[in-house]
Amino acid sequence: MLSCRNVSLRKITKNSLICTKMDYPSKNSKNEPAQWFVMNAYRKEKSAEIILENKGFQYFIPKHYVIRSIAGKPKRLLVPVIPNLVFINGKYDDINAFQNLYPFISFATMRKEGKNVIMKVPDKEMENFIIVASKLDEDIMFFKPEEIELKKGMKVRILDGPFKDSVGILQKIKGKRNKRLVVEIEGMISAVASYIKPEFIQIIEQ
Fold first, then answer.
1. Staple 153 to which of 162, 169, 176, 185, CB 3.0 to 4.6 Å?
2. Total domains present in the chain
3. Could you tell me the residue range of the domain that residue 137 belongs to?
4. What is the pTM of this model?
5. φ, ψ of residue 30 in degrees (nearest 5)
6. Which one of 70, 89, 121 terminates a domain?
């Protein structure tokens, strides 16, 4: 499992981070393995990051550099790609107890079959996303689900370079000359890597 501390996603849709009464996991959740949960830290991502670091949680807050005017001068700042959003890895009971102590951090939910269910991300999907999204100096781009069509590309594994061991879709991106590696957290966000040397690419038969 990757360690994701100190790598710190823009709110994709208006209703994607609703935190209301939901169907919680069963009382047997203590026996469940650690999972990646999608959490909402409304306007307090930095505070959440500091607390999670101090408490020893594995977490991921995707960040990117932007240029903003500070006191009339341009300044390069590292900010979350998606305000409010934090990924935390752990057992449900541990994270639930944690968010009860810090109520500004809450489980993100989505509507499914008429119910509000807690949003989780499969380990491998999260691992691939972290490999790409954590490379701050590699010209990473981020897209909403509706902005990119993954079915048009071919599935590949990266064998070397900064994105080594990641698995994603290799495809043409509008405005870019070469094909790029795309990894996604399904229904939430896609991260697009910079140019990858052909010798580093292994096609995965589908």
1. 169
2. 2
3. 126-203
4. 0.79
5. -60, -25
6. 121
